């Protein structure tokens, strides 16, 4: 950074860079060969949320449904949902991400529609189209205008359609480091937070440098934005354990699940560990109106 001249954050450029890099090499997060060979990276919380919202088990409720995967990046979960029988549209503001997503979908033998759009300003052509709008892990803290985001979700849902958001819990996004414990991101308040760095959450050594802006939103602010967009809140959950690393500082414990424990546990009994903190937030909401018996 040059002296006295702060760099201007450019989130779009950042995501174009990351979309070009992810899944291309030494990347412990985006294992595309696993997806191409029929595997999935969709976490247990995300699958449970979709089952809760759409009915059925193991994504069976998606069969024949129109799904929008908002801020889809390389569309890994979109491909899993297409394999479950959904007609899926991946939406992202990164054209590179969408091109890579289309290539991946072709390699997987599934069809994926794509729409290049800012999720704060979704195109009118998508209005009332989807039975499910799905967004997961690393979505909401890129958004400065939550009201516009939620209004767009509500607008592109068909009457009675469901919104599923499974995202990093705002408590988790506060953590800069665990040892020493540094909380360097606000819990909420939507104030712009500009920071610079190198690498990506998928590969810390990646040859990319960036300056980005992100926006803290508390659980209350997220819920109020859902309600402000005239959606009904159907389900809210905060979980202290995830099956995916979330690219964060969480530790994979002996049961194969990631947690962050803060505190001392029991001095008397070393088997009594410190309590884990919330890592994921799940929100399910319903658009107003009668659901149609078959996909619109
Ligand atoms: C952390 S990634 C999502 C990762 C995804 N859950 C996955 O499993 O790969 C965030 C995505 O949000 C997209 N994005 C960020 N801000 C956006 C905006 N305002 N409108 C549309 N897409 C946006 C980025 O291009 C990126 O693909």
What does this structure look like?
- The protein is of the alpha/beta class.
- It has one domain (29-249, 280-286): Vaccinia Virus protein VP39 (Rossmann fold, 3-Layer(aba) Sandwich).
- Helices cover 25% and strands 24% of the residues.
- The chain contains 8 helices and 13 strands.
- The protein has helices at 11-21, 32-36, 44-54, 76-83, 95-108, 146-156, 170-173, 219-228, and strands at 66-70, 87-92, 113-116, 130-136, 157-168, 175-178, 181-183, 193-198, 209-214, 232-239, 251-252, 258-259, 280-286.
- The strands form 4 sheets. A 7-stranded mixed β-sheet has the order 3-2-1-4-5-13-10, with helices on both faces. A two-stranded antiparallel sheet has the order 6-7. Strands 8-9 form a two-stranded antiparallel sheet.
- Helix 1 runs parallel beside helix 5 (95-108).
- The longest helix is centred in the middle third of the chain and has 14 residues, at 95-108.
- It is globular.
- Residues 11, 15, 71, 73-74, 76-77, 92-94, 97, 118-120, 136-139, 142 line the site of S-adenosylmethionine.
Head-to-tail CA distance between termini = 51 Å
In total, how many domains does the architecture comprise? Answer: 1
Biggest sheet, in brief?
7 strands, mixed
Radius of gyration: 19 Å
**Which range does the strand content fall in?**
15-25%
Label the structural class. alpha/beta
CATH fold call? Rossmann fold
The low-confidence parts are none
What's the CATH class, please? Alpha Beta
Determine the number of helices (DSSP H or I, runs of at least 4 residues).
8
Bound molecules: S-adenosylmethionine
> Do you know the CATH architecture?
3-Layer(aba) Sandwich
- The CATH homologous superfamily name equals Vaccinia Virus protein VP39
Mean pLDDT: 91
| Strand neighbour order, sheet with most strands | 3-2-1-4-5-13-10
Written as H for each helix and E for each strand, in order along the chain, the element string is HHHEHEHEEHEHEEEEHEEEE
């Amino acid at each position: 950074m040059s002296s006295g001249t702060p760099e201007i954050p450019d989130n779009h450029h950042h995501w174009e860079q990351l979309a070009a890099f992810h899944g291309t090499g030494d990347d412990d997060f985006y294992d595309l060969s696993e997806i191409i060979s029929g595997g999935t990276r969709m976490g247990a919380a995300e699958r449970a949320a979709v089952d809760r919202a759409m009915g059925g088990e193991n994504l069976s409720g998606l069969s024949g449904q129109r799904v929008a995967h908002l801020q889809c990046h390389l569309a890994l979960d979109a491909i899993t949902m297409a394999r479950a029988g959904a007609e899926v549209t991946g939406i992202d503001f990164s054209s590179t991400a969408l091109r890579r997503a289309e290539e991946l979908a072709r390699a997987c033998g599934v069809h994926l529609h794509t729409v290049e759009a800012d999720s704060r300003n979704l195109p009118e052509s998508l209005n009332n189209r989807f039975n499910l709008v799905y967004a997961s892990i690393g979505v909401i803290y890129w958004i400065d205008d939550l009201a516009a985001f939620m209004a767009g979700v509500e607008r592109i849902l068909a009457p009675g359609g469901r919104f599923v958001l499974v995202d990093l819990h705002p408590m988790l996004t506060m953590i800069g480091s665990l040892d020493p414990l540094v909380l360097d991101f606000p819990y909420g308040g939507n104030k712009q937070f500009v920071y610079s760095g190198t690498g990506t959450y998928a590969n810390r050594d990646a040859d990319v440098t960036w300056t980005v802006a992100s926006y803290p939103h508390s659980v209350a602010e997220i819920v109020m934005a859902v309600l402000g967009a005239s959606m009904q809140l159907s389900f809210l959950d905060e979980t202290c354990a995830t099956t995916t690393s979330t690219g964060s500082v969480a530790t994979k414990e002996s049961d194969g699940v990631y947690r962050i424990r803060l505190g001392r546990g029991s001095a008397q009994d070393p088997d009594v560990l410190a309590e884990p903190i919330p890592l994921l937030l799940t929100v399910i909401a319903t658009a107003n109106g009668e659901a149609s018996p078959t996909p619109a």
